[in-house]
Amino acid sequence: MSALHPDLLTTDAAGAVPVRFVGPAGEIEPGLRPWAGANGFKGKPGQLLVAPNADGGVAAVLVGAGETFDPMTARSLPARLPPGLYRLEAELEHAGTAALAFLLGSYAFDRYKARPERAPVRLVAPDGLDVASTLRIASACALAREMIDTPAADMGPLQIETIAREIAEAAGASIAVTTGDVLLEDNYPAVHAVGRAAAPHRAPRVIEVGWNLDRADLPLVALVGKGVVFDSGGLDIKPAVGMRNMKKDMGGAAHALALGRLVMQANLPVRLVVLVAAVENAISGDAFRPGDVLSSRRGLTIEIGNTDAEGRLILADILTRAGEHSPDLTLDFATLTGAARVALGPELPPLYTDDDALAADLLAAGQAVRDPLWRMPLWPGYRGAVEAEIADLRNDSAAWAQAGSVTAALFLQRFAPTTGSWAHMDIFAWNPKARPGWPEGGEAQALRACFELLTRRFGHNNASVR
Ligand code: BES
Ligand code: MN
Ligand code: ZN
Predict the structure, then answer these.
(1) If you measure from the C-alpha of residue 253 to the centroid of ligand 2, how many angstroms do you get, rounded to a whole number?
(2) What atom of ligand 1 comes closest to residue 233's alpha carbon?
(3) Cβ proximity of 50 and 81 under 8 Å
(4) Distance (Å, rounded) from C-alpha 92 to C-alpha 70?
(5) Residues annotated as part of the active site
(6) If residue 21 lies in a helix (H) or strand (E), which one and from where to where?
(7) Which of 63, 145, 193, 283 is most solvent-facing, going by the fewest CB within 10 Å?
């Protein structure tokens, strides 16, 4: 996987072009007013004015900031500015976030298409910014996006395992991988059932990375991810439109691995377990079927109402596994339901947790780093919707409840660790509509919010990057 170029953020300000954020009531300096007027620049959000100097170079850039400045606006700059070196001017309250946004906006998925050679658009790091940390955060988001963007043929269970091995090795972490029929011996029956229809070289696997595990004095954080490398729906096959983007169904695993790498690179004083189930929800004579009853690592039986509700099945087993480490905090990421998008749309991931303090802290962290989450309820009234007649649970929640993202979360809750706190994020992991700085394709969601939370809760000096 390619890395973000560290030169994009530099500390050498020589010759940098100033970039100013201007609101609707903001002052435009007298020398630029005619040019701004001629170009209709009024400081509206999304507006950009590149002002030339006498030599035909760029004198200054004005960026419309609207009423309240959103530092994420800076995501659009790399794609819209002429090549060169820029600096964010003035005492921006959120200069650090804007610099990070600039790096996020520099991401392009170019694995299969050579783009025209273009000199880079680079940024001077704002004063006081922790450049290394900002680059690490942006790289984590780029890793998640690249994994999501890579088609299923090139991002199968083995490729996810390989990336996990690289991450573990670079950090001096341990890694254990359980593959194929060994999943049955090692008691991951649901992971095996969902993934067993895939071709042998794409066999299902549970990947577990452990770091600092001998440091019993440190809090233990478990990061858990849904890694369905392609979700055909299984025998309950998806219609074409619904299947089209299902290469992204390993987005949760990408998030857990990228966040895990970030935690280890930042050397956060925690014990860390990253748990990912990498499977292909495929169709073959050996596929699991509607009506089958699966067992699970926890011992609860699950009646399969729909083979397309596969994510909660694999998560059941690895959430149980996470619990065996007695974690203080468990965060899971999963592209779990289409209903999450119906509820909140593609930009706002639902957050589920019973821990009010954790919810408040996560929402606040997300707000601070502009990586929003929205809390949804683990509504006890709907618990019955995931109970079955002939088994302990059903994977397709009963129709009367609707609320598909909520009932999926309630299903997971039955398997979540009982030590510490657990939060589940039903992420979309995708930009469905291209905007400058937000290309259509894979997106990191809640990753920066979770890292900010971990830094605030467990960091050495409770420092945060802003
Ligand atoms: N991976 C999908 C959910 C999904 C679909 C996420 C589209 C993001 C975009 C999941 O495995 C799934 O198919 N869920 C079903 C569950 C249903 C069969 C109970 C769904 O949401 O329709
Ligand atoms: Mn599915
Ligand atoms: Zn799925």
Answers:
(1) 15
(2) 13
(3) yes
(4) 11
(5) 238, 312
(6) strand 17-22
(7) 283
- The tokens of 163 are what? 């990336």
CA-based nearest residue to 410, from 375, 378, 376, 374: 378
Q: Which atom of ligand 1 is nearest to the CA of 236?
A: 18
Taking each continuous run of H as one helix and of E as one strand, the counts in the chain are 14, 19
| pTM to 2 decimal places | 0.97
Amino acid at 101: A
> Sorting pLDDT into bands at 50, 70 and 90, what band is 117?
confident
Q: Is 315 in the pocket of ligand 1 (CB under 6 A)?
A: no
Cβ–ligand 1 contact at 405 (below 6 Å) = no
Distance 281 CA to ligand 2 centre (A): 8
pLDDT tens, position by position, 222-248:
999 999 999 999 999 999 999 999 999
Q: Which atom of ligand 1 is nearest to the CA of 310?
A: 11
Q: What sign does the CA torsion over 101, 103, 106, 109 have?
A: negative
Q: Is the pLDDT of residue 427 over 80?
A: yes
Quickly list H helices, 175-291: 182-185, 189-195, 240-243, 251-265
CA of 187 to the centre of ligand 1 (A): 25
Chain segment 340-372, per-residue pLDDT in tens: 999 999 999 999 999 999 999 999 999 999 999
In whole angstroms, give the CA distance from residue 4 to residue 45.
27
Strand order in the sheet with 17-22: 9-10, 121-124, 84-88, 17-22, 58-64, 48-52
